[in-house]
Amino acid sequence: MTASLISRPNVGEDAVQRLNNLANYHVDVLKNVGVSIGIDLPGSERIYVTAGHADRHGTTPVKKDHLFQIGSQSKTAVAMTLLLLERSGAVSLDDAVLDHVDLPIDRRITIRHLLMNASGLGEFTSAFVQRQLDPHITYAPRDLVAMALPQGQIFEPGDRFDYSNTGWVVAALAIEAVTGERYGDVIRRLILDPLQLKNTWFGGGAPTDRMMRGYIQSPVKSEPIDSSECLSWAYGAGDGVSNVDDMLDLFGALIKPDSNIGINLSDLTRQTAKHCDKPYFSLSFGTEYGLGVERRAWAGQEVWGHPGSTFSYVTSTWIDAAAKVVVTTCVTRNVSIDETDTALRYPREQLFAMTLNTAYAVAQQQHD
């Protein structure tokens, strides 16, 4: 199987080819379904690398225009939306959540706590019965919150950063309570339309015929479950659908001084929270978190952005503000519920570092 490679001639060809090889490796050796990668550099045409197919039947090669589930990258858009609502005077990030949404949660939890993953709320995804998992089941947002309540308050509100998908369900409910609109419609009005992002949806509505498809192998189902159209379980926490170009534009707007939405990266990173030595959610370890974005150093340089995962989609977008580099990645999988080697089939550190280092190599060659 040969990956499709689209790039400008004579701009870091060796680095781009190595990234191309890695994309092929993810499909041919690690047995993922498809890969889509985009790199945005100042003063240059975008670089795209794709591999594999849009479905497990191998009928359509992955193209840069294919849509995919962005998972927890949705959290960045939710945080940006609430920040804009605060600027309009509709809400304060320091308001108690219970001032806007009636839920059986700790009154000390503020909207800011939700957006910094510092609420201490339990994790609703822990309540899913893995062997009986079926993403086609429709969940109401309040049902998701209820699934987390038996875990109690994990830590004191504001005490630290620790991932909580439940907090983002509550954040989306707060958007709806404050505006009287569907939260996805508010994101479209305040962010997607001003940035002219026509290939991004939150809260449903994405055209399913344009999706890269991901699958779940379940011991209680004879055929793989196509999870590409099942997102009610991820409401507010990860139900976004987008493509490579829109993700580069959405996160890239944070480092453009003339952005139509008037939010920059410093607005989201002015206040941060840090993990504890033994976080409740293991992926929290090593992370510093602002408003809907996290700080990492995948390729030895400070980058801000967000990873994302749903049942069979794993994604990320990262910004190096100093180099004005933005990269985005998506891998679709045919994953078994009982699989114990998921991290080996998706070595995200390798993928993120290789993509960023490719961007740096291309940028350096252009400079030279």
Describe the SSE topology.
Elements (H helix, E strand, L loop, with lengths): L3 E3 L6 H16 L5 E7 L6 E6 L15 E4 L2 H14 L23 H5 L25 H8 L16 H15 L3 H10 L22 E3 L7 E2 L13 E3 L1 H9 L12 H5 L3 E2 L13 E2 L4 E3 L6 E7 L3 E8 L4 E8 L1 E3 L5 H4 L2 H20 L1
Helix pairs in contact: 1-10, 2-5, 2-6, 4-5
Care to describe what's here?
With 368 residues, this protein is of the alpha+beta class. The chain has a single domain (57-351), classed as Beta-lactamase. The protein has 10 helices and 14 strands. It has helices at 13-28, 74-87, 111-115, 141-148, 165-179, 183-192, 244-252, 265-269, 342-345, 348-367; strands at residues 4-6, 34-40, 47-52, 68-71, 215-217, 225-226, 240-242, 273-274, 288-289, 294-296, 303-309, 313-320, 325-332, 334-336. Strands 1-3-2-13-12-11-10-9-8 form a 9-stranded antiparallel beta sheet, sandwiched between helices. A 3-stranded mixed beta sheet has the order 6-5-14, with no helix packed on it. A hairpin with a 6-residue loop joins strand 2 and strand 3 (47-52). The chain is globular, with a radius of gyration of 20 Å. The model has no long low-confidence stretch (mean pLDDT 92).
Which features does this protein show?
368 residues, alpha+beta, Beta-lactamase, nine-stranded antiparallel beta sheet, three-stranded mixed beta sheet, 10 helices, 14 strands, 17% strand, hydrolase activity, Class A beta-lactamase-related serine hydrolase, hydrolase
Principal-axes geometry comes out as: globular
**Mean pLDDT, rounded to whole units?**
92
- Beta-strand portion reads 15-25%
CATH class designation: Alpha Beta
Largest sheet, strands/sense/barrel: 9 strands, antiparallel
The structural domain count equals 1
**What's the number of helices?**
10
Strand order of the largest sheet: 1-3-2-13-12-11-10-9-8
Secondary structure class reads alpha+beta
* pLDDT < 50 runs, ≥5 residues: none
Helix content: 25-40%
Question: Termini, distance in Å?
Answer: 34 Å
- Got a strand count? 14
Rg computed from alpha carbons, rounded to a whole number of angstroms: 20 Å
